[in-house]
Amino acid sequence: MSAPAPKRLARRRRRRRIALVSLALTLGFGLVVLVQAWVPIGKAAQGARLERMKASPQWHGGEFENPQPLWNDAWGMVTEMFSASDYGRPAAAIPVVSGDAARFDQPPSTGLRVTWLGHSTLLVEIDGHRVLTDPIWGPRTAPLTWLGPERWYPPPIPLAELPTIDAVVISHDHYDHLDQPTIDRIKGWDTTFIAPLGVGAHLAYWGVPESQIVELDWWQQTRVGSLDIVCAPARHASGRQLFDQNATLWAGYAFVGPDHRVFFSGDTGLFPGMTEIGDKLGPFDLTMIEAGAYGQAWPDWHIGPEQAVRAHQMLRGQVMLPVHWGLFNLAYHGWTEPIERTLVAAEAAGVRVAAPRPGQSFEPEALGPGPVERWWPEVPWRSADEYPIVSTAVD
Predict the structure, then answer these.
(1) How far apart are CA 143 and CA 125, in angstroms?
(2) pLDDT tens string for the chain (395 positions)?
(3) Which domains are delineated in the chain?
(4) Cα(125)–Cα(30) distance, rounded to whole angstroms?
(5) Which residues of 65-94 are buried (b: 16+ CB within 10 A; e: fewer)?
(6) Quick one: DSSP state of residue 140?
(7) Three-class SS of residue 319?
(8) Where is the Metallo-beta-lactamase domain (predicted)?
(9) CA distances from 130 to 2, 56, 77, 122, 180 (A)
(10) Residue pair 171/131 in contact by the 8 Å Cβ criterion
(11) pTM
(12) Does residue 255 contact residue 227 with C-beta atoms inside 8 Å?
């Protein structure tokens, strides 16, 4: 027997109220997220900046494109999460080398010194100049301070303790490379902000003076003192929200001084053009190449350890510094896997590798011939045979 009409009506009204409350809570939560993320998301290029982007040889059909398209396995991206490593983040504190500005009072004896601050943030002292790459001092790689991948340790050197920086170089606008909280704190620096086409719109929106922003296309360059900074091709993508994918350019950089040359890859998959970069801008005393945060379902986005060693050789590098690992959990492999595999591949290829602790400075020309210091723990990781990363469209 069905319930009396008044009871059925009361139940429908109760369900309706629950649905309306749920909808209101969902909309309210979405509004809070939107408000908090609005500024960190950044701003799209307009006017003369946009017209310059459209004139780029890399601009096609309303967005930037790679000469070799990015291949993705959509189903693999879903299924890989079920086989994620149990060692995706450190179980104990990482032995960070902390410091302050005084440690930089003495210039490098060789003229080239690099301090790895974790992930892709590096302080490069080259021929009397200081360059800071992809500075990340914020807590997460996301537009929100309470959601998204969280850093594993505080910045080894506080922003206020950095020496005077001649140039801040941005490789692309993904959150683990372009950090709005950091830019907000350094926007008043008397320095030059160098970025690929379109990224300057974000910087200007966040308060960096237009007069201090230099935007470059691939193969273009600018000069800071006697240091040439050349924007080099990379194989990657860009975007800070759903509707701005590939609306800005991505790049690597060559720092060419009177006596030294250094290459910074940014994020990239392997691509044939690395040989051209090496021929035109090398040989390099040091290559700083991303080696972590990779997956078989997206092999063209991130190069992986073995291909990073191959890229170092294509670039005509002398010493290789693997970066883009050891600070955030951005993939499904173990956190030590990138450096372990890089060392194996480098030994087989006869490549010299530097593996400093986060915050540790080193001079490539002063590296000893012995093995690197293994400051990370021994935990299980997959070899190249077990989990190969092979970019497409590369012979």
Answers:
(1) 30
(2) 455 677 776 777 777 777 766 666 666 656 556 668 799 999 999 999 999 999 999 999 999 999 999 999 999 999 999 999 999 999 999 999 998 999 999 999 999 999 999 999 999 999 999 999 999 999 999 998 888 999 999 999 999 999 999 999 999 999 999 999 999 999 999 999 999 999 999 999 999 999 999 999 999 999 999 999 999 999 999 999 999 999 999 999 999 999 999 999 999 999 999 999 999 999 999 999 999 999 999 999 999 999 999 999 999 999 999 999 999 999 999 999 999 999 999 999 999 999 999 999 999 999 988 889 999 999 999 999 999 999 999 98
(3) 64-366 (3.60.15.10)
(4) 44
(5) ebebebeeeeeeeeebeeeebebeebeeeb
(6) B
(7) strand
(8) 129-325
(9) 80, 29, 39, 10, 21
(10) no
(11) 0.93
(12) yes
| Contact criterion met (CB below 8 Å) for 262 and 270 | no
Closest alpha carbon to 137 in 199, 173, 183, 206: 183
Instruction: Return the number of other C-beta atoms located less than 10 Å from residue 257's C-beta.
Output: 21
Beta partners for residue 361, in sequence order? 115
Please tell me the distance from the alpha carbon of residue 278 to that of residue 261, in angstroms, as a whole number.
11
Using the CB atoms, write b or e for 224-242: b if 16+ within 10 Å.
Answer: beebbbbbbbbbbbbbbee
DSSP per-residue codes, 212-262:
GEEEE-TT-EEEETTEEEEEE-------SSTT-TT-S---EEEEE-SS-EE
Q: CB atoms < 10 A from the CB of 374, how many?
A: 12
User: Alpha-carbon distance 166 to 162, whole Å?
Assistant: 12
Q: Which one-letter DSSP state was computed for residue 171?
A: -
318 exposed, middle or buried (CB, 10 Å; 0-12, 13-18, 19+)?
middle
Question: What would the two tokens of residue 138 be?
Answer: 């914020």
CA dist 114 and 261 (Å) reads: 12
254, 283 in Cβ contact below 8 A?
Answer: no
Alpha helices in the chain, H assignment, sequence order: 5-41, 47-54, 74-79, 180-186, 200-205, 273-281, 305-314, 337-349
